[in-house]
Amino acid sequence: MATDLAPLPQLTPLPAFAGILREEETFGTGAETGVNDRLNSSFDRLMLQSGLGVQPGMLLLLSLCTAITCGGTMFVVQENLLSAALVFILGGIAPVAYAAFARSRRQTKILNQLPEMIDELSRAARTGRSIEQCFTLVAEDTVAPLGQELRLCSAKLDLGLGLRAALEEMPGRTGVVSLNILVMALAVHLVGGGDLVTILERLSRTIRERIQYLGRLRAATAASRATAILMIVLPPLILTFFAIRDPDYFKKLMDATWGRNITILAVVLDLIGVFWVLRILKDSQRT
Q1: Could you tell me the residue range of the domain that residue 287 belongs to?
Q2: pLDDT digits (tens, 9 = 90+) for 137-159
Q3: Is residue 16 domain-resident?
């Protein structure tokens, strides 16, 4: 006998519990439609992939405080606006440079941990467990920083998300290209099936070969990267050194016509060279 079922009551959100959620602060929209939005999105990715756990606004505030402290100290010592301005700029760049260094170090650690993690996932798959159970087991045994990302995906699995939905944000959070290969391989296996152990073994071998290739590429481009770093770091450091040593040095240089023209030409050529070398290095890493 058919009976009419009463509709389930609609759930309404309670504002009293909204405070337990931490809002994710972002400056960019992610669409990267313009130059400003592209820079903001790049800065958001830098903070997310660095693993520092610091909001972008907090890092900008820290940069401002560092810049004011360094520039104010230099002005008190020398009472020269030029040297104080140069130290102010260097102090403001320092926290962002540290975040970029932290991201690079974290990505290297994750990439080196990835083959061993895939091997462990393959050994867990041999026991007959489901892929979700294997992933949860491996996530608990993997150390940070890769283990931290895996445990976050495992928590999403516990909340009822599918494996593909739980893993799709991990490459963007880390910035490691090899994780895209892992996510794609697991997604294809979920759809088409196949021998998971063989897929994982081949994937582990592929990532190891990729790590070896990146090592050879890094060694081959060491001179170019050192040149780019020197072109970026040396000019402002030399200018800061002369400004601190002789506060009137830059004023005397700018008063002379030849000095002003040569300085402007040197800055333009240095910027062109930096962007050119960085573009070449970026294209070589993509290939």
Answers
A1: 222-287
A2: 999 989 989 999 999 999 988 88
A3: no
